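Throughout our pipeline, every protein is held as a single compact record rather than as scattered files. Such a record has a labelled line for the sequence and another for the backbone structure tokens. The remainder of this section carries one protein's record, kept here as part of the documentation:
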Amino acid sequence: MLILRTSHLARGLAGVGVRCRQKHTLPDLPYDYNALEPVISAEIMQLHHSKHHQTYVNNLNVAEEKLAEAKAKGDISTIISLAPALKFNGGGHINHTIFWKNLSPDGGEPDGELLAAINRDFGSLDALKSQLSAATVAVQGSGWGWLGFNKQKGALQIATCPNQDPLEATTGLVPLFGIDVWEHAYYLQYKNVRPDYVNAIWKVANWKDISARFSAAK
């Protein structure tokens, strides 16, 4: 069963740099493929970005073309049948566009209002890392672990999403920091030891980007 907050998904797709009726494109990385070594190898980054993310972009464009044709024909059955492809590939594009910016070889540390919110909602930065890491490692199969912002409660919140489900479109939480635990994100380097990858990724967390997302979400 597919439940989507369509306004959130549309806004998320618009936020990755493409407007309606224009084709989505693969965003450039803000650093070189080897910039996150030794935490994430250049080989993984190149495959993850240029192959996997590119596939989501390609398939999203195909699905949107089919959607436009179905709308023009008033083909409601086809419109409904395209929802899973839009959710999966649209989510993959949204999630990865956030993910690349969430990482940096020099991401600093949280401070100011974000650090205050972390201390308020989790007790400490270490507690946040521990809780988000545990939730992410526990994702069954493929998916994502997220630090999000709950606008209704005005609080930070941890969530996990299966597959490529986009956080805001499926939960209403604004994504601040995501950890990709599809095996293509880590297997070539960490094999089947997902906890090592999840614990290591904090070393390249881009707190400047996370802070900016937090400020915008409020």
Q: What stands out?
A: Strands lie at 143-150, 155-162, 174-180. The longest strand covers residues 143-150.
